[in-house]
Every structure is written in C-alpha cells, then in structure tokens.
Design goal:
Length: about 900
C-alpha cells in the first residue's frame, strides 16, 4: 500500500539504493573483476571484529537491560526509547514434523508432537556511547546425519539506526564440503564498502564493491539492523508498510517491505498463551520477484514470540516445549474409556464429562494442551467403535483356576521270583526255567486237555492231533489256554541263553569301540585342528584382500562423486555460458536498430563479434569436455562395479570361512550335507584367484588416475575460459564506454550548436522585424519631402524657380530612396539567413535525435544488459543455476 512520507517513523537513515542501476560515469561504483582476487591490505585488517572489540570497553549497560518485562505492557512506558530497544533473547529453533502448523482463525496452536527441537538462536543488543551493538548467533542440526550449521552477526548502528559497520557469517556442510559465506559492510566517508567471501573447504574467493551513498534518501538495513528496526517499529506502535533496501550474502541488493498488521492476535505456543500479539510480515524482492517471505509475532514489549519462513519447515519460538509429568492429575480419557468399570464410579457420580465441559477445562488448563488435545477431538467428539458404552458395566473377568491332577504311584509287585527260597541254587532252578521233572514225559501231555471247571461253555473246534501236541484250546468262562507250563519254561530258558550271548557280544563291542574311539578321535581332532588353522589363515588372507578392495571401492566411489560434482559444475558452466551469449547477441541485435548514419561498424561492434566467436569456441570445448566426462564416468562406474563384485564375492567368502573357523563339534548348526565332498569342475586355482584380484585393483587404479587427471584438466579449462570471457567482456565494456563518451561529446557539441542556432535564428527574426520597422519609418520622411515638393510646385509665376531648397528636396528624396533600397537589400539578406538557420536547425535536431537514440541503445540498453554479465565464479560453475 502507498504511504505518505510523513507516516514513516523518524529514523534518520540517509541511505538510498534506488538508483543503483543508474550509475554515473564518474566511477562512483567500482566493482573489481571477479578473476582478480581481492587482496586484503594491512589497513583493511581493522574490520568489524576490531571495531567491536574496541567499543566493548565503552559499553555501560543499564540496570534495565536485565529487567524482565511484563507482557502486554509497552516497553516505552517503562524505559526511554533507546533503552527500550536494548534486549537479550534466547530462542529455540524447531523443525515441523508435518508440512504446516495447526491454524485457527485467531489462534496459532503449536503442539509438542508437531515439532522437533534442533537448535538455538541468541540475540543480544547492547548500548554504546553513540548507538547500538548487535550480536546474533544460531546453531542447529539438520539432515539424517545431524550436520551442524549456523550463523553469527556482529554489527554497530548509530542512535538513528543507521549502519556503521556489520559482519555476517554463515557456514554449512554439503556433500562433506564446508561452505562458508561472509559479508563485511561499513559506511566510510559516505560510501558503502562491502567485502564478500565465499569459501569451499580451503578454496576462498573474495570480492569487493564500493557504492557512493551520498545524496541517497532510501533506507539501507542489513540483518542486524532488521532486528533493531522491527523492535523499534513494534514499541512505537507502528502500523502499515515500511520499505527499505538490504543486501544478502550473495551481494544482491534486495527491495524489502515490512508489513505490521493493525489487528492483534491471540497465539498459543505449547502451554503458553500470548494476548495482543503483533503480526509482522517481511517480504524481500529481487528483480521485482519475491525471493523470501517470513512472518513474526511480537509481544507489545518488542519480545519475539514466534518466527517462521514460508516454504521452509523451520520455526523460531520463545517457549520451550512442555515437559509432561509422569502421572497426570486428570485420568487419561482413553484409559477411562477402556476401563469402563472404573469410569462408572466417577462418570455417573458427576455426569458432566462432555465435549463442551472438557473443552472448557482444556482452555482453563493450557498446560495439558499437548496431552489432551487429540483425546478431546478423537475420543470425546468422535467416539471409537470398539469402546463399550458406559451402561455396559460389569465385574471384571477373572481368570479361571486350573488344578493339575496328581499322578498315582504304582505299587510294588509282590510276585515271587521262585517256588522256594533256594531258587538261586543250580540244583533248584528258578520257577520260570525248566525244572528237573520237566525232562520226564508228563501225563498231561498224553491226555486230552479238559475244562478247568464245570463252567466251560461254547463250541470248540479241535483236531485229533491236539491231544498229542497239547495245543487244542479249551475255552471256559474266563480264559483260553494254548501252551503247557513246561513249554513256557523252555521258552524262557531259550530267551535267557540268547540274552547271555548278546550280552557277551555287547561287552566285546564295548571294548573294541572304546579303543577305536580313542584312536580315531585323536586322529580326527588333529586333522580338524590342522584344517581350522589352514582355514583361519585363508580367512585372514581373504579378509586382507577384502579390506584392500573396500579401500579401493571407497576411493573409486569418492572419485565418482567428485567427478559427478565436477560434471554438474561443467553443466552449470554451460548453462551460465548461455547468459553472456544471449547478452552479446542481444547487444548486436539492439545495435542493428541504430538509425541512418549511426549504423557504423565501430569498435563495440567488432568486439561483440569477437566475444561471440570466443564464446562459441569455449562452448565447443566445454561440450567436448562434457562428453569426455560422461565416457569417463561410465568407465568409473564399470570399474566400481567390478570392484564391488569382487568385494562382494570376497566378503561372502570371508563370512563363510569365518563361520567355518568358528565351527566345532558342539556347534548347533552342523549337519550332514550330501554331496559336500564333490569338487566342482569350475573351481579356479589359487594362483589365478590371486592374479584376478591383483589385475582388478591395477585396472581400477589406472581408471581412477585417469579420472583425476581429467578433473584437473577441467579445472584449468574452466579457469582459463572464465578469465578469457571476463577479459573479453572488459574489452567490450571499455569499447562501449569509449564509444558512449565519444557519442556524448558529439551530442553535446550538436546541442551547443543547436542552442547557438536557435539564438541566432531568434536574433535574425528580431533584426528582420527591426528592418521592417525602419523601412516603414522612412516612408514618413519620403512623404514629407514629396509633400514639400508638391506644395512648392504651386508657387506662382517666376516664384516657381529651381532654387537651392528645391535641389535640397530632390537630393533628400534621392537619399531616402537609396536608403530604403539598401534597407530592403538587407531585409532580403536577413530572410535568406533565416531560411538557412531554419534548415540548419532541422539538421541539428535530426542529428541530435540520432545521437540520442544511439546513446540510448548503447548506454541504457546494452550497458544495462551487460550489467547482468555473470561473474568468474558463476562462469566456473560454482554459482547455483
């Protein structure tokens, strides 16, 4: 929105960068060529650090510096205006886990689970005898590897917030490379001296610029001054838009707009609620396009509450996250819901736990924000389906008890071992062995078998031989019998003899097995130990080769990464190379529009053609180099793949051998493997294995050395190309300056001639008018003379004589007539001169118009285009595209 001049706060900043593009020809803007590195002189060593160190001894902080301001009370009501700007803040940097915060109409709500604290931001403003000293520092971690980055600002401003000196530094790590940028700016004798440094690891480039600030009214504010400016505007209750200029670490001049909204906000950060927060929006423009937009919330005292950037997931906040206690006073709603039998005692007794009452309690106890917010929205308002209603209360389910039955113990058998107590005697064998009387024929065997008792029933089929063999069955109510006791005891004797025979063989086998086991075990253990030692030695050898391949693979991977970075740098250089080509072509195209006689083949035209030819040659060289890089990258990746393939095989072999070395007879993973002894026919010899590994390493090392040589060649190519392009650009600009100066001199000469011509034309027109008046003035004299002569012609008779008076009248008429003729001749001559002057004016005006158009094309168009000429750093591929 447009603002009147009187609406700006009265801070006497006398800087103006609005006419930075309209640089005069008096060399007020001196920018050294980028390829000429700026060398710091001894007197330049007295920089911002030395100045601030000298000023610190004079700083006398007041007691109010450490005073804790009460919120919602403007600081200017407690302090004077200068002391109100002095402050010391310790802020926190957090990263949003989601894309954006939860926003409501009047509330900015940040929950602890939405943020991850990653760093700190410190601001300190002290009072000096003639102004303010600003200190600012930040440190944070980013990325998966927690890479550290940060910045620091140290500056000094006068009582009117005008820049005296400031130094800013930022550092970051990108692909294991430390990138550090710094800007040192100071005002000396009405001139802004800016020194910029860019360091990538140990490579440093320095640039210097001098800008004449005299006569400029716009505001120049750097980063440290922005902290002072925002606090100054907030404590003075400023509302609306404030415009200023700034300079970033890349040396770009930014046009900025600071918007302070009139409406106050109510903001919540974690458990802290801030009333009447002031909303500030800071927008930075580069070439009329927004480059960065940030928003801030301030307390009326000027203390920063919250700050965040658009398109970034980082915020700076004043309040630290609320630390949850171990036990909550209010029971967890989800626990209450799932343990419904516990909820009944409280819910039915109170009957007031609803969404409205819970939200009211939530607003009254902001310290429970993080804990209860999700429950209020998801549990109370949207009740889960898997949760029982309150009315379905019941006693808790108890686990059933299971009893393990006791096992009944078997009783001892009391079956007698023999028929008499002397059963162990050989003459009296046990009852289950054949008895002496068993050798005699038994009468039972000669008679048919009958029933044991009178209860036998049923039908029995038997043959006549059953009586002889004793095998005919006799069936009664309780049993069926087939053999006699003699036969049973004979069978037992046969079993005992067989048992003794087997026992004898077992004892013999036990002895033979024991001796064989001792002998074979000793042999197997010895062989296994020798094999283990051999495999351990082999595993160590494979591990050594694996480590060597790991080192070679890492070196090749680093080379591929470095070569890819150089390849990207080369691509950037090719892209940037299109900028000077477009500038040169457009300059030639613009100069073809020169009118009429101004269309000459001058020095700028020839140098522009030479510049195009040089750029074309450099582009062809860079394209050829890019093709070489692509081919080399393919070779590098092939070599790395070969190394990784060999390393993978050796890693697997090393792991297998390591596992085999660790195997013993007590391992849990050993088993029989059928076909394990088979020797595959494709197995290589040990000599070829070693030759293969050595040849792989040698060929890959040759490929890497070739890649290193190509990278070194690229560096020299880009440096030489940037030097040649910038040198030719300087020649073109010098030719343009000379041509512009010559055209300006010619234009000045023609303008002076036109001024003289117009003056002479005006004088001629005045003279013509004067001559006309003179001729008309002679008519009266002629009339007098002729009237006198006519009157004398009426004299009577002899009185009408030709006397001397008559002769004098005749001479008078002749004199007047000759004078009029002379005046008419001069009048004609004046008219002719007037015509020539008018023609000359037309020619001069046309020439001036042609010269002005030529000057406009060369100075305002071509030189403006060439002001965007890329630097040597950009041409070398270091600048971002």
């Amino acid at each position: 929105m447009a603002r009147r001049k009187s609406e700006y706060p009265k801070i006497g900043l006398n800087c103006n960068l609005g006419t930075l593009d309209d640089v005069s020809a008096e060399n007020e803007y001196d920018l050294l060529p980028c390829q000429k590195k700026f060398r710091i002189k001894p007197e330049d060593e007295i920089s911002v650090d030395s100045i601030i160190s000298a000023l610190l001894s004079r700083i006398e902080p007041s007691e109010m510096t450490f005073r804790k301001y009460k919120f919602d009370v403007p600081a200017k009501d407690l302090l004077n205006e200068k002391q109100a700007i002095i402050f010391n803040e310790n802020l926190y940097i957090s990263k949003l886990k989601n894309n954006e915060c939860r926003l409501e109409e009047e509330v900015q709500l940040l929950l602890e689970k939405d943020l991850e604290e990653i760093g700190e931001f410190n601001i300190n403003v002290e009072e000096s005898f003639d102004g303010f000293v600003v200190f600012s520092k930040s440190k944070m971690r980013k990325g998966k590897n927690n890479i550290e980055c940060g910045h620091w600002v140290r500056g000094k401003y006068n009582d009117h917030l005008g820049l005296i000196c400031e130094k800013r530094n930022e550092y970051d790590y990108v692909d294991n490379s430390r990138i550090e940028k710094s800007l040192d700016a100071r005002i000396v004798d009405g001139k802004l001296i800016a020194k910029r440094e860019v360091s990538i690891n140990k490579d440093t480039q320095r640039f210097k610029a001098v800008i004449n600030m005299k006569g400029r009214d716009d505001v120049l504010v750097l980063d440290g001054g922005i902290l002072l400016l925002m606090r100054y505007l907030v404590i003075n209750n400023f509302q609306g838009d404030f415009f200023y200029f700034s300079m970033n670490l890349f040396g770009k001049i930014l046009h900025c707009k600071l918007t302070i909204n009139a409406a106050r906000k109510r903001i919540k950060v974690f458990h802290r609620t801030f009333q009447n927060a002031i909303h500030v929006i800071n927008t930075q423009y580069f070439n009329n396009y927004p480059s960065e937009v940030s928003e801030s919330y301030y307390a009326p005292s000027g203390k920063m509450i919250l700050h965040f950037w658009h398109d970034f997931q980082y915020i700076v906040h004043e309040t630290k996250g609320y630390i949850k206690p171990v036990e909550r006073i209010v029971p967890k709603l989800e626990f209450m819901w799932r343990s419904h039998h516990l909820l009944l005692d409280k819910y039915f007794a109170r009957k007031q736990l609803t969404y409205e009452t819970a939200m009211a309690y939530f607003k009254e106890h902001p310290e429970l924000t993080d804990f209860l917010h999700d429950y209020l929205l998801n549990v109370i308002k949207f009740k889960p389906l898997n949760v029982l209603d309150f009315s379905d209360a019941g006693a808790p389910v108890e686990d059933a008890e299971f009893k393990i039955p006791r096992k009944e113990e078997a009783g001892e058998s009391n079956i007698p071992m023999s028929l008499n107590p002397h059963a162990d005697d050989s003459n009296n064998p046990p009852c289950y062995l054949p008895q002496p009387e068993d050798e005699l024929p038994s009468k039972d065997n000669l008679q048919p078998m009958g029933p044991i008792g009178p209860w036998a029933t049923g039908k029995v089929d038997w043959s006549p031989m059953a009586g002889l063999t004793g095998t005919r069955p006799v069936v009664d109510r309780y049993s069926i019998t087939r053999f006699s006791p003699n036969e049973w005891r004979a069978k037992n004797l046969e079993t005992v003899k067989n048992t003794n025979k087997v026992f004898d063989r077992a004892i013999k086998n036990q002895y033979n097995s024991k001796t064989s086991q001792m002998r074979i075990s000793s042999l197997v253990e010895k062989t296994q130990a020798e094999t283990t030692a051999s495999m351990r030695q082999r595993a160590q050898l494979v591990g050594k080769w694996k480590t060597t391949l790991e080192v070679a693979t890492k070196a090749m991977a680093d080379e591929i990464s470095t070569l890819e970075e150089e390849r990207v740098r080369l691509k950037k250089s090719l892209v940037i190379l299109g900028v000077p080509e477009s500038i040169a072509k457009e300059c030639i195209d613009k100069r073809t529009g020169r009118p009429d006689t101004e269309l000459v083949r001058d020095a700028p035209e020839e140098e522009l053609v030479n510049e195009l030819a040089l750029l074309s040659e450099i582009r062809q060289l860079l394209k050829k180099t890019l093709e070489d890089f692509g081919q080399q990258q393919v070779e590098n990746r092939t070599a790395r793949q070969r190394l990784e393939y060999d390393w993978s095989d050796k890693k697997e072999a090393y792991e297998i051998d390591s596992v085999n070395v660790g195997l013993d007879n007590n391992s849990n993973v050993i088993m029989f493997r059928p076909g394990a002894v088979r020797q595959p026919p494709e197995q290589a010899s040990e000599q070829y294995w070693e030759h293969f590994s050595k040849s792989t390493l040698e060929e890959c090392e040759k490929c890497r050395q070739k890649s290193v040589s190509l990278r070194q060649t690229l560096n020299s190519i880009l440096l030489n190309a940037a030097r040649d392009i910038r040198g030719q650009a300087d020649i073109v600009e010098k030719a343009f300056v000379a041509r512009i100066n010559c055209t300006q001199e010619n234009l000045q000469r023609f303008e002076n001639d036109l001024r003289d011509c117009l003056q002479k034309l005006a004088d001629t027109e005045t003279r013509i008018g004067h001559l006309h008046r003179c001729v008309r003035g002679f008519d009266a004299s002629m009339k007098v003379a002729q009237t006198r002569m006519d009157n004398r012609s009426f004299r009577p008779n002899v009185e009408n004589c030709r006397d001397s008076s008559q002769q004098d009248l005749i001479d008078e008429v002749a004199t007047i007539q000759s004078s009029v003729s002379a005046m008419l001749f001069e009048l004609d001559e004046a008219e002719s001169v007037k015509t020539d002057l008018m023609q000359l004016r037309s020619k001069l005006e046309r020439e001036i118009m042609l010269k002005r158009r030529t000057l406009w094309l060369d100075r305002d168009r071509c030189m403006l285009l060439r002001s965007h000429y890329p630097s040597a750093n950009a041409l070398s591929g270091f600048a971002s595209v």
